[in-house]
Each structure stands twice: as structure tokens, then as C-alpha cells.
């Protein structure tokens, strides 16, 4: 095993590397609200390519705009090839940039969650060259590739520890998007996640923040997908869901104003609870948005409002993080069309109608600090195998039954068939009546 050529532990030797010197003041944002609302930060100038020439002034402008909406946190992403261009090299300059961004967010009154291994962002994959072409390594199964990712997460955790606005460290964005080029089994995924979650936790230290991971909707709806619902709902500190309206053609199948679309984030939250072994485990709607043409621009403000209100009707919701802060500038080529329209702000920094709707809805929900969400005492029983998981996705029989019940005025929870006779479990969730999806 080659030594890791990084300044991972240089903070003790070089002031300002990774950690601020103790004499520097660190801004402390307001205390975290009980129910959190934030946005995934996409730099308006240069998209994530902005990391190549990071400009703190421009980042501050973006983050101040986000804070101005009354949001409390951002999720931020650096690029894996820039952080770790060689398997045994982690660039101190790139880590410093990330830490600086977190500090700027604090100065703007925002908390931050950091995603570590990018990985996949908005239809582009970012691999360091040491994983590609002549040096190809399966990022999920190659022991040295896993070891290198673990080293990166430890480095980031140690660099970020102690910042009062840090929410936590996530392994990376929707890592299951990399499966197509990195074949992997469910058992291998479990090993990969366990190893990297342990590395992130080691980096942050005890009490240093949340440790999480994320997957796109195939983990929940995809038959035999190697990233499983169980992994999402049982590994890490919080279950993250990304209920996108384009998944399984939901918006096109049912229509942009349909109950199926407007209750999708709520449904994703309840579905996630079914796979958790801990009835009290929180669920975080970590990505949801209003992509055109799936959601026409005229419908986006209304969609944002009802999505937040419906998700907030779920007990155990950690919060909602909208995708995304700023539109991709159309001067950048080759993005799918929907990626140019997802921002709360346009690429010049002007707030769009959806930004105002989101801000007003967040303010409305926060105006009820003691707001109590009734427990869902009726549950729909989910009976599926890994090979029939698609029944719970848009177009599936279970999904359509749940949506019908919701449309009729019920507020159904979801219970897996193997827990349907577990009285202790049902009581812990407050469930008094079970409904069959058959």
C-alpha cells in the first residue's frame, strides 16, 4: 500500500491549512430550526466548474441570495477529480476552498452539509483519471479505490470538524448513478457503504455531525437495483430520499398538477419509513425540484408550495432541500434541457416566481413553531421482493393504491409485509389499521 501524499494532518503544522487558526473568529449561524428547509447550492457562474477558479466573492453573493429567502442550510459539492487527482494525493488547496465556502455560508447565516465524492452531478460523471481508461478501477469494488475514497472522506471530516454551522458529511451525490460503469452486487454495495460511512464518521469524530449517503430513485423503485431501500433506510444517521417527478415518467404519466406529482415527496418519505428498522429514524427529502417541461414554469410556484406542505405532513421529517439554487447558464453546453431551468434564481441571480413561493411557504410553516403533525394510524402493506420493487414506483400497483387512498382523504403510512403482524413495531409507529394493496 502506497502512503497517502496529502497534507491530511498538516493542520497541526501549517496554520490555515484545512482549519482556521484559533484566533480567527468563526461565524455562528442561528440555531437550527426543528424542521429544516434549504437548497442544493449550484454556483451561478460556471456551475461546478467554478471550483477550478474559486471566487469567494461570487460564492458570498450566491449564498447571501439563498439566505435572503429565509432558508437555513445549503448542501455543497466539490469535484472528486479536483480534490483527489491521484489515488494517493489529496490537494490541500481544494480542501481549503471547500472549508472557505463553509465559512462563508456561516457568515451568511447558513448551515451546511458537505458531499464528499463527486461523483455524479446533473447528468455528468466526475471520475479522477486514476479510475479511468488504462487505469480503470471499479470504484465500488476495487479495494484500493475504496481505501482512497475513505482517505478523502477522513480528510474532509477532519478539515471541517469544529465548524458550528456544519450539519455533517455525506459520502457523495447519488453514487448509484455510477453503477452502469461500475458493476456491483447488493452485498458489495453494503460493504462499500459501511466502509465509507465509517471513514466519514472517523473523520468528523464523535458528535461532529451527521453521516449520510444518498441514492437516486432506482434504489427505491428499480427491480434488483444493487443499491437497496434497506441500505438507504438503515445505513447512516438519516434516510435521504430524492423523489424526482421525472423518475419512472411520473409527471408525464399522470400530469404536472396530478395528486401523484404533488404528493410524490410525501409518498417517498412514507415509503422510506417502511424500510427502516428504527421507527423513529428521520427522513430527509434531500432533492426535489420543478424541472421543465415536466413541471411547466407557470405551475412551478404551486408545485413548490404543495410539495413542502405535503412533505411537512409527515412525522419524522428532518427537512426539505430544494434542487437547486441557481439555473445552469445557457452559455454552458450539453446539459439536458431540464438542468437549465431548475434554479430558484436564474443564472444572473434574479429570483424566479418559484423562489418567492418557496420562501413564503417556509415562512408559513415556521410561523407555527409548536406545529403538531398527527400520526398516520392507517398503513398500506407493501409486499414486494427485490425483483418486484417497481410496484412501489410510479405506474406500479402499490404506488397507485397509495395515491388513490391519499386522494380520497386518507393519510396512509407504509408497512412492509414482514412487519404486518409485529404488534410492538406497529404500536411504535402508532399504526392501528392495516390496508392491503391487493
What does this structure look like?
The chain has 438 residues and is α/β, with parallel strands linked by helices. The chain folds into two domains: 8-366, Alpha-Beta Barrel (TIM Barrel), CATH 3.20.20.80; 378-436, no CATH class. Helices cover 33% and strands 13% of the residues. The strands form four sheets. It has an eight-stranded parallel β-sheet with strand order 9-8-5-3-2-12-11-10. It has a three-stranded parallel β-sheet with strand order 14-13-15. Helix 1 (56-67) links the parallel strand 2 and strand 3 (73-77). The radius of gyration is 21 Å and the shape is globular.
Summed up:
This protein is of the alpha/beta class. The protein has 14 helices and 15 strands.
Features:
TIM Barrel; alpha/beta; Glycosyl hydrolase; 33% helix; eight-stranded parallel β-sheet; GH
Number of domains: 2
* Topology, number of strands: 15
Radius of gyration: 21 Å
Chain-averaged pLDDT: 93
Order of helices and strands, N to C? Answer: EEHEHEHEEEHEHEHHEHHHEHEHEHEHE
Profile the largest sheet.
8 strands, parallel
Which fold name fills CATH's third level, the topology of the largest domain?
TIM Barrel
> Quick one: CATH class of the largest domain?
Alpha Beta
Question: What class would the helix/strand composition place it in?
Answer: alpha/beta
- Put simply, the count of helices is 14
Distance separating the two termini: 55 Å
Roughly what percent helix?
25-40%
> How are strands sequenced across the largest beta sheet?
9-8-5-3-2-12-11-10
Amino acid at each position: 500500500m502506497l502512503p497517502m501524499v496529502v497534507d491530511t494532518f498538516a493542520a497541526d503544522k501549517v496554520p490555515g491549512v484545512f482549519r482556521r487558526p484559533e484566533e480567527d473568529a468563526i461565524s455562528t449561524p442561528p440555531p437550527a430550526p426543528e424542521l429544516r428547509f434549504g437548497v442544493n447550492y449550484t454556483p451561478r457562474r460556471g456551475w461546478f466548474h467554478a471550483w477550478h477558479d474559486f471566487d469567494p466573492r461570487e460564492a458570498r453573493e450566491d449564498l447571501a441570495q439563498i439566505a435572503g429567502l429565509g432558508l437555513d442550510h445549503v448542501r455543497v459539492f466539490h469535484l472528486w477529480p479536483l480534490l483527489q487527482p491521484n489515488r494517493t494525493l489529496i490537494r490541500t488547496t481544494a480542501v481549503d476552498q471547500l472549508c472557505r465556502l463553509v465559512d462563508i455560508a456561516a457568515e451568511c447565516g447558513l448551515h451546511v452539509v458537505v458531499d464528499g465524492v463527486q461523483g455524479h452531478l446533473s447528468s455528468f460523471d466526475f471520475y479522477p483519471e486514476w479510475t479511468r481508461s488504462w487505469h480503470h478501477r471499479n470504484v465500488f469494488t476495487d479495494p484500493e479505490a475504496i481505501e482512497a475514497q475513505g482517505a478523502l472522506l477522513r480528510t474532509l471530516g477532519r478539515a471541517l470538524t469544529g465548524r458550528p454551522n456544519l450539519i455533517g458529511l455525506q459520502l457523495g451525490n447519488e453514487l448509484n448513478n455510477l453503477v452502469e460503469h461500475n458493476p456491483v452486487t447488493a452485498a458489495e454495495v453494503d460493504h462499500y457503504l459501511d466502509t465509507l460511512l465509517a471513514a466519514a464518521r472517523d473523520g468528523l469524530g464523535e458528535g461532529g455531525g451527521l453521516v449520510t449517503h444518498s441514492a437516486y430513485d432506482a434504489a427505491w423503485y428499480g427491480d434488483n437495483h444493487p443499491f437497496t431501500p434497506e441500505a438507504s433506510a438503515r445505513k447512516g444517521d438519516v434516510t435521504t430520499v430524492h423523489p424526482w417527478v421525472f423518475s419512472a415518467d411520473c409527471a408525464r404519466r399522470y400530469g404536472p398538477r396530478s395528486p401523484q406529482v404533488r404528493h410524490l415527496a410525501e409518498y417517498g418519505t412514507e415509503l422510506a419509513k417502511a424500510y427502516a428498522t428504527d421507527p423513529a429514524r428521520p427522513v430527509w427529502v434531500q432533492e426535489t425540484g420543478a424541472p421543465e417541461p415536466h413541471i411547466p414554469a407557470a405551475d412551478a410556484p404551486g408545485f413548490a408550495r404543495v410539495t413542502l406542505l405535503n412533505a411537512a405532513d409527515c412525522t419524522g421529517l428532518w427537512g426539505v432541500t430544494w434542487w437547486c439554487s441557481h439555473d445552469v447558464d445557457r452559455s454552458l453546453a450539453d446539459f439536458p434541457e431540464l438542468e437549465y431551468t431548475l434554479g430558484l434564481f436564474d443564472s444572473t441571480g434574479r429570483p424566479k416566481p418559484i423562489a418567492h413561493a418557496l420562501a413564503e411557504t417556509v415562512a408559513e410553516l415556521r410561523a407555527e413553531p409548536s406545529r403538531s403533525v398527527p400520526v398516520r394510524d392507517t398503513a398500506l402493506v407493501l409486499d414486494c421482493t427485490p425483483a418486484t420493487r417497481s410496484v412501489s414506483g410510479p405506474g406500479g400497483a402499490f404506488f397507485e393504491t397509495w395515491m388513490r387512498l391519499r386522494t380520497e382523504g386518507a393519510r396512509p403510512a407504509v408497512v412492509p409485509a414482514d412487519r404486518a403482524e409485529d404488534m410492538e413495531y406497529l404500536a411504535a409507529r402508532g399504526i392501528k389499521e392495516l390496508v392491503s394493496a391487493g
